[in-house]
Amino acid sequence: MNDIRCFISQSLIALTLLNVAMFANSATAETITGQSGNVRAEISYDKPQEYQYKNVRLKIIRAGKTILDKKLPQESEFDRPSGSLAGKLKLPVVDLDGNKEPEVIADFFTGGAHCCVYSLIYRYNSTSKQYTQIRHEWGNAGYELKDLDKDGLSEFESRDDRFAYAFTSYAASGYPLQIWQYRQGKMIDVTRRYPKSIAKHASENWQTYLEAKKEGDDGKGFLAAYLADKYMLGQGKEAWQQVEQVYQGSDRSKYFAQVRKFLRETGYVK
Fold first, then answer.
1. What are the tens digits of pLDDT across the range 48-59?
2. Cα–Cα separations (whole angstroms), residue 76 to 15, 30, 100, 111, 118
3. Digit-coded pLDDT (tens) for 127-182
4. How many angstroms separate the CA atoms of 157 and 56, rounded?
5. Which of 62, 205, 228, 264 has the most neighbouring CB atoms within 10 Å?
6. Radius of gyration, alpha carbons of the chain
7. Count of alpha carbons within 13 angstroms of residue 266, beta-carbon side
């Protein structure tokens, strides 16, 4: 009996140690890093279980000296850091405004089926020797960093997420192009400076509409996005004539009125 008790006791101790080890391993901090020149940034976090993220911290080091080390706010424990928006699992550290000082872009995804993505962008102030931060919301769209005008500085290529659910379901929604630049601590919408990119995107929205129509969808979401793209090109009148010809749904009068109102409210129609 004593042997059995001893065996049970040892087994319980072993099981307890195993559980402790498993918890410790599951809660081990993970890290996303990035570097440009002598500036290194890292986001660390604990992941006690899948889809749960805690103790998210950002550290920025310049020439071996830690300038910023802080815990970042989360909207919920599902609010997770992500390096994948930059194309690789790393923290973007890149000069966005051409002042020879790299900015740090901390991307986050709030979890859920469709929403939401936002970026915290940190800029170094050489006078105060501190970092200042802004937050930019991407909604469902996210972004890609691209040097669209080949000037050595990256733009944020995205979509206008305000069009999600505006006229139809999320899956059937279309989005006009959005391009942003970061300048002196602010995000600036510069989409209209890139007419070739807009024209390409408008063509893609139109082709997606045609494909959706073949599959039995009315394509309302893609037509609205197409119109927005064309308005940015100064071709709104021609685009309306085109859309009025192809869309013959029973709700066409109501739909056209909704689109006109929405395009005014979102600034596509002045």
1. 777 678 889 999
2. 32, 18, 35, 9, 14
3. 999 999 999 999 988 999 999 999 999 999 999 999 999 999 988 999 999 999 99
4. 27
5. 228
6. 25
7. 24
**Burial class, 248, CB count within 10 angstroms (exposed 0-12 / middle 13-18 / buried 19+):** exposed
Of 192, 243, 193, nearest to 222 by C-alpha is 243
Token representation of residue 15:
């099981």
pTM of the model: 0.84
Q: What is the pLDDT of residues 92-141, one digit of tens each?
A: 999 999 999 999 999 988 876 667 899 999 999 999 999 999 999 999 88
Chain Cα centroid distance, residue 5: 57
Write down the pLDDT at residue 48. Answer: 73
Q: Is 152 within 8 Å of 127 (Cβ atoms)? A: no
pLDDT band at 1 (very low <50, low <70, confident <90, very high): very low
Integer Cα distance of 89 and 33 in angstroms: 8
Tally Cβ neighbours within 10 Å of residue 143.
21
What's the confidence (pLDDT) of residue 83?
62
Instruction: Say if CB 190 and CB 181 are below 8 A apart.
Output: yes
